[in-house]
Q: What sequence folds into this?
């Protein structure tokens, strides 16, 4: 449900950077999402198409780079990727585990089109 | 015509985070300890607040920001009847509070006369985890009848907690709640988090929770 608020924030950031680069169009948005961040990609894209309409980012494609969270075994210090279910350490079988994740949710980069690069400020 | 890729590297909720920092500065200036109280609907957030007001009085004064999705003042009315100032935020159907809503609520409370501020978030274990409010601590109220699998289903919210309350422990004999399983999930996500099993109905366990809150408040004054 909070995807709408998220999408409005995303648009503000995209348009600000597009203006700075004198872009005529934004074609792509590359987003980094931690595995434990509760964001539904399709829902963001749905709201994006609505909120970006009429802006120079209209129709831009959103790309979600899901970063897996890792699990650190407290017993043997083995590190492994967090699966869909939290299970014991595959190395030593311990259940003394700690999940490590950065909680990242950021706009990494955007793809832009500049029609007349000569007109752009240096 | 050229196409290129431009590096951005900005947190998508950065605007909210910056507003949250302004809220924090304001709360620090008033010298109070502020809690973001999280839970699913019906876990007992308001009951815990009402119990806590009574337990802290007259030593400490507690103020409340009530977040609700609908324009009803049931929760705020209960808090005010218990003797504390409360301001109601209607989120207009939104599933979470954000820093902007809290910023608008703060001037409506007598902050300088308060020791503890509780921001009662919207009952939701997903969306509320993403938005910082500027409070000093995140506290989740889980409850026995909700089930023991909550940490496994809602890992993001359990990761960010400073304290965890388990309410309705008086119902334990009537439901299949495996506390060991619950706590194993909590330890995975947030080892060492302060844990307060209690019952707002019977009063059992409330003292440890209230002592924790009073101690945190005393640290802000120090």
A:
């Amino acid at each position: 449900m909070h995807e709408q608020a998220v999408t409005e924030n995303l648009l503000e950031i995209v348009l600000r950077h597009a203006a700075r680069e004198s872009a005529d169009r934004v074609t792509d948005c590359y987003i980094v999402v931690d595995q434990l961040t509760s964001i539904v990609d399709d829902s963001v894209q749905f709201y994006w198409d609505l909120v970006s309409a009429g802006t120079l980012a209209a129709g831009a494609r959103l790309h979600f780079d899901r970063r897996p969270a890792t699990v650190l075994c407290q017993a043997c210090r083995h590190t492994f990727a967090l699966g869909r279910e939290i299970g014991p350490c595959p190395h030593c079988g311990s259940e003394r585990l700690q999940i490590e994740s950065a909680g990242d949710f950021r706009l990494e980069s955007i793809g832009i089109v500049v029609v007349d690069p000569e007109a752009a400020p240096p | 015509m050229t196409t290129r890729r431009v590096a951005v590297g900005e947190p998508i909720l950065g605007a909210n985070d910056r507003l949250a920092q302004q809220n924090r500065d304001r709360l620090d200036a008033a010298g109070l300890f502020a809690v973001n109280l999280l839970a699913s609907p019906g876990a007992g957030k308001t009951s815990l607040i009402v119990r806590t007001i009574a337990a802290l009085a007259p030593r400490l004064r507690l103020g409340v920001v009530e977040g609700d999705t609908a324009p009803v003042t049931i929760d705020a009315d209960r808090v005010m009847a218990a003797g504390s100032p409360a301001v109601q935020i209607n989120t207009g159907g939104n599933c979470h509070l954000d820093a902007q809503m809290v910023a608008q609520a703060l001037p409506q409370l007598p902050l300088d006369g308060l020791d503890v501020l509780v921001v009662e978030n919207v009952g939701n274990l997903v969306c509320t985890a993403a938005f910082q409010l500027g409070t000093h601590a995140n506290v989740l109220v889980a409850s026995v009848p909700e089930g023991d699998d909550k940490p496994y289903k809602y890992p993001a919210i359990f990761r960010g907690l400073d304290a965890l309350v388990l309410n309705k422990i008086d119902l334990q004999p009537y439901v299949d709640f495996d506390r060991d399983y619950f706590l194993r999930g909590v330890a995975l996500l947030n080892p060492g988090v302060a844990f307060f099993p209690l019952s707002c109905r019977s009063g059992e366990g409330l003292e440890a929770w209230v002592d924790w809150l009073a101690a945190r408040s005393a640290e802000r004054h120090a």
Q: What stands out?
A: The two ends of chain A are 41 Å apart (CA to CA). Chain A has a mean pLDDT of 88. The helical segments of chain A are 3-20, 41-51.
